UniProtKB/TrEMBL annotation:
This is SDR family NAD(P)-dependent oxidoreductase. The lineage of its organism: Bacteria, Bacillati, Actinomycetota, Actinomycetes, Pseudonocardiales. Residues 9-248 form the NAD-dependent epimerase/dehydratase domain. SUPFAM superfamilies: NAD(P)-binding Rossmann-fold domains. InterPro entries: Epimerase_deHydtase, Lipid_A_modif_metabolic_enz, NAD(P)-bd_dom_sf. It comes from the Bacteria. It holds the Pfam family Epimerase.
């Protein structure tokens, strides 16, 4: 599909990943990009550049995906829907009823409105959390979802199921992308659930060592937010439907290695500091198989961890 001249709706488009999707939709020539975001975590600042660059093509609807009439009105006339609005995993655990309303009912509203509007494709944000602690590494999309024990992962797995059922019932085309550990410019630096990277950057900038809670041996599969956004664009363009893809770098990095990489980028040589683990993290390892996305979407990560961290630090300095 050629994105030129398409009207796209981006839910959660003022957030970390969504705002990069907005940028890349403009690059791809989308006629109109409508962001629907309640700004609970997203910021107008994240799309300020896009609004400035193409004021006639970008529109912000400040509203909630739980608001059915608003969702229907926003999606009416859309060719594509990129569905990113969601709550973070920690907020889902703290407030599961709100999570049910936003992640499950909100997603239902988006899907129903997409069917009614005759949307050509929904590109939905899923997560590696659906796997829980995987039993096989690298983990493929065929891995079962029964090791997940989080409400967030359960809601995302249900969202994938809802999309499949609407494909079967109403032939709504969709692709769901299971992102692994996302980082990069526009990460929420001010929120209550501040990412560990932000905390470490603050400490390093203040002349302290990054503080590792626990042994730091837990591994993750980090992927830069701009590569994630590109996967969204390719998922819309590619001739694929009714399927899910892992989006990661297929590289295992421990928290210790991450802290050291960040220190290198920020020029710190202090020894790492350790503290007691705050909570038990049942997911001790992540490593994705990304061959399906490579084969079907023509997607490959292009930004190395050091390069991504350099850009993250540079952006974060402008925010301080
Ligand atoms: N960041 C990650 O590591 C990661 C990993 C896997 C999956 N994901 C998924 O990717 C998507 C985007 O994540 P992100 O990192 O950009 O998060 P984010 O919090 O930066 O963006 C989510 C956006 O949704 C908005 N939002 C929340 N509730 C809303 C509501 N009820 N109505 C309208 N807007 C609402 C927020 O204001 C925010 O701008 C989410 O679906 C998330 O679950 C993220």
């Amino acid at each position: 599909m050629d994105l030129n001249d398409q009207r796209a709706v981006v839910t959660g488009g003022a957030g970390t990943i969504g705002s990069h999707v907005v940028d890349q939709l403009l690059d791809a020539g989308a006629r109109e990009v409508v962001v629907i975001d309640d700004l609970s975590r997203g910021r107008v600042d994240n799309i300020a550049e896009a609004l400035e660059r193409a004021p006639e093509r970008v529109k912000l609807v400040e509203g909630d995906i739980r608001d059915i009439p608003l969702v229907k009105k926003t999606i009416e006339g859309a060719d594509l829907v990129f569905h990113l609005a969601a709550l973070r995993i920690t907020r889902c655990a703290a407030e599961p009823r709100v999570a049910l309303e936003v992640l499950v009912d909100g997603t239902f509203n988006i899907i129903e409105a997409s069917v009614e509007a005759g949307v050509k494709k929904v590109v939905a944000s899923s997560t590696a959390s659906v796997y829980g602690l995987a039993e096989e590494f690298p983990t493929t999309e065929r891995h079962h979802p029964y090791n997940n024990d989080t409400f967030y992962g359960a809601a995302k797995a249900f969202n994938e199921g809802m999309l499949r059922s609407f494909k079967a019932m109403h032939d709504l085309d969709y692709v769901a992308l299971r992102y692994f550990n996302v980082y990069g410019p526009r990460m929420d630096a001010h929120g209550k659930y501040t990412e560990v990277l932000i905390r470490w950057m603050e400490r390093i900038a203040d002349g302290q060592s990054p503080l590792i809670l626990g042994d730091g041996l837990q591994t993750m599969d980090f992927v830069d937010v701009r590569d994630i956004a590109r996967a969204n664009i390719l998922a819309a363009q590619a001739d694929v439907t009714d399927t899910v893809y892992n989006i990661a770098t297929a590289t295992e990095t421990s928290l210790l290695e991450l802290a050291e990489a960040l220190q290198r980028v920020m020029g710190s040589t202090l020894p790492l500091e350790f503290g007691p683990a705050r909570s038990v993290n049942s997911v001790t390892r992540r490593l994705a198989d990304i061959s399906a996305a490579e084969r079907d979407l023509g997607w490959k990560p292009t930004i190395s961890l050091e390069e991504g961290l350099r850009d993250l630090v540079q952006w974060w300095r402008t925010q301080r």
